[in-house]
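The data are set out underneath:

___
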Amino acid sequence: MTAPHPVLQPYDVLIIGSGMSGMVCAATLSREGMNVCLIEKNPVFGGCLQSFRRHGVQIDTGVHYVGALGEGQIMRQILHYNKVLPHLHLRQMDQNGFETLHMEGKTYLHPMGYERQQETFSQYFPQHKDEIRRLLDTLHTIGNKLSLENFRQGIIDDNDRTYMQLSAAGFLEQTISDPLLRDIYSSSATIIAGEHDSTPLYHYAMVRHSNIIGAYRFEDGSQHIANAYLQTIQSQGGTTLSNTPVTSICVSNGLVTGVETSSGEFLPARNIISTLHPVETFRLLEQTPLVRKAYLTRLKSLQNSSGLFSLYLLMKPNSFPYLNTVHFLFEDRKTWIRRPTGKTPELPTSLMLSTQAHHDSPYTRLVCLMKLMDYSELLPWEQTIVEHRGESYLEFKHLHQEQMINQAENYFPGLKKSIQAVYTSTPLTYRDYIASPQGGAFGINTDSRFLLGTLISPRTRIPNLFLSGQSLSLSGILGTSVTALLTCSNLIGEKYLAQKIANE
């Protein structure tokens, strides 16, 4: 280990990884007076918030829509507390249908608001009004666990794990007797890589609830979210370092002392928060008897979420309309990932189609097509790196690209002729850019059947090393933001932090 620089004072908190969770941690703790350092291995900050520019167009990579962003809702309040809300360009999605589902030749709209949901689906399925009400009441009850009301009482996490120990698919099967209605309400499982046997009802309900109460998009690309956070962190005295891979988390006398970077520099810190995948965090950690080998073995054995194959279709100017709803295109009624014993997982073949909003145009320059993909399909290129995967990999991507575009064309005639250029990402892209084992898009799968064995705590056996990110409790923008607050509460107190956010 490189010796500490004699004049470099330890940071109060060093945060590894600049995705949403890292950004929220850095903005929160720097606002509370701590000297923080946010460190990122890539040239660009933001993790899945990152955009890339082609032909002068900012192209989002991972943010399609976000829930709980209405007035008085929790995601909006977190952004307000972090002082980034005034810099963001929000667009509320279609209240009559923030999601549009295409299944068996029919179209179903998911409207915003619980009463609209009840009315709309009671019209689709008039014989099942009571079942729809029971389902929506449960979603509302679970979703309200993340609310300003609870924050005002000093509660971020009430530690009630009841709904985490129930399977989402199992609950829907018990509540909804009509198979088609059940499949319609399962359709959004594809955006959380939902597993039929294991995904907790809590995870499913939080995503559904947040979108029902307030689904929004960010205009002109999600990179400006990361940029707004960086500006806030820096204005509060925080240090931000990009192009700085961490090669070692250093330990002495039972405490982490800082990190060593790829340049050989040692950055000292009194506390470290890692937002990396837990396996990657402990791979970087110097050996210590505080972390048992059995724990590391268990971590490595945990199942990661499925990955994503994404197409970014750059559209010709003024050729394809902006759609203020997300479309789910189902060729069949498979909505959940199923894992037959000893066999390759069975993934839904559905596509999600999302258009990027631009503040000055009724047209879009970007259509994103996304589907789930299992890592086993990419094993021939497992030992490769970005831009060096070979011709066979390009052929593999092109095959999936053509299939997905043709599938989307069936629902949106004329889409093909509007395409100017196509860009792709696979689970290998996630693996290499955000250090996600096997390219999982949503971190470690929390298993409702084995909750204690798969639920990762922000605390570790090293008193000043903490975890955050999408492998803990919830994924997505809302999930990782709340996870970040829970991690920060270990340093500044849950009641204090929750009430300060709520009363901002």
User: Anything to note?
Assistant: The chain has three domains: 11-51+63-90+220-302+443-502, 115-214, 306-441. Confidence is low (pLDDT under 50) at residues 1-7. The radius of gyration is 22 Å.
